[in-house]
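#onboarding

Welcome to the new folks! Below is a worked example of what a typical request in this channel looks like: someone posts a single protein sequence, and someone else replies with the predicted structure as tokens. Don't worry about understanding the tokens yet, we'll cover that in week two.

Example request:
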Amino acid sequence: MPHDGHHSHDVPPDGWKHSGVRVIPGDQLDTNTAQTPGMNRAAAVNAARVGAQKIWAGTVHIHPNAKTGAHHHGALESVIYIVSGRARMRWGANLEFVAEAGPGDFIFVPPYVPHQEINASTEETLRCVLVRSDNEAVVVNLDIEPAEQVEEVLWIDPIHKNGGV
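Example response:
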């Protein structure tokens, strides 16, 4: 069937004017969202603000030399993009694994993984963009005694195991 620009979705009465693309100004994010001690989360895109059905997006700021409490996000997948600063992530049943990320890096957190975000800088705020796989900001704060010994984990690209060669 030839593509003639029409589709099966009904055009809303406003012709998509207010129900189509939305620009959410960075200074108008909603801090009335699930919080974890040591971290400031602000929602940009969710069900309440724009009618998002499948994703949640917002920002996270962690103050210099600060760290969050241990937590997980239930069944949700999370992606963290580092805008500025240096992130140190700890994860595992006793937060025994560690990795660091800097500006331009992405971090993926699978469902139910206990983790902790740490600002590895003593001077610069860690600023991140956060996207989750559902429109509700699920946060389960955990009472975990962190392991004293940690194991650094480097990412191995499953597709390009030999560095893309």
